[in-house]
Amino acid sequence: ILVYGDSDLTVGETLDINTKNVKGTTERNTDEAKISGVYLITHLRHIISPGPGQAVHYVAMKIQKMGYSV
Fold first, then answer.
1. pTM for this model (two decimals)
2. Residue 70 pLDDT > 50, yes or no?
3. Among 16, 27, 40, 70, which one has the highest count of C-beta atoms within 10 angstroms of its own C-beta?
């Protein structure tokens, strides 16, 4: 997963991901219960990319789902 930079994120923290109203190619809004849930951050990589006015900071994370909820 790639997010805007956050220097406070650390390996071992959890993220609560909610994918409500995902719209795919069918144009149907769905509640993706299989994807939503609590994830553990297992790896972090900070990416700083020069931009036209200033540098942009992103964080690439490997995450692992903690469980399945319906």
1. 0.69
2. no
3. 40
